[in-house]
């Protein structure tokens, strides 16, 4: 996760040095050619304040999510990124440009919140409850309350995280709850 967050900072430094040339990799809604930007958009930010706001929650939630294995984590991140990006492409206001890792942050939050219930693991349920207590206030971010903030990316990221918990679930083979 340190490498991922470091990459986000490096990309933003390159973006600044190139006079924000990388901002074109954000998602402009409902333009077919923009579908190719769904994955890159999760790595692009509009300034250092933007990347800073995503860094700590991405580090914390990503680290906890990755404890179940890097392969599963990468699958979760992929599902979240696609869901968040496609949701933005589908419903964001016309002529806007959306980018940033906050959809992934909201997705990891949703994933960690429900993973224990889906996998039927008491430890993961406890982790989800702790995550809810620590980060639950971010749920306000799925509402259209702040100008210039992509509530669509947040909402679809959250949906992607919950979907990833179901799509990539692990259940004990013997059927016992652990």
UniProtKB/TrEMBL annotation:
The keyword Membrane applies. Keywords: Hydrolase, Membrane, Protease, Transmembrane, Transmembrane helix. Its main location: membrane. It comes from the Bacteria. It holds the Pfam family Rhomboid. It is a multi-pass membrane protein. It is found in: Membrane. The chain crosses the membrane at residues 43-66, 73-92, 98-118, 125-143, 149-168. Signal peptide: none annotated. Residues 34-170 form the Peptidase S54 rhomboid domain. Gene3D superfamilies: Rhomboid-like. GO terms for cellular component: membrane. GO terms for biological process: proteolysis. GO terms for molecular function: serine-type endopeptidase activity. The keyword Lipid metabolism does not apply. This is Rhomboid family intramembrane serine protease. It comes from Actinacidiphila oryziradicis.
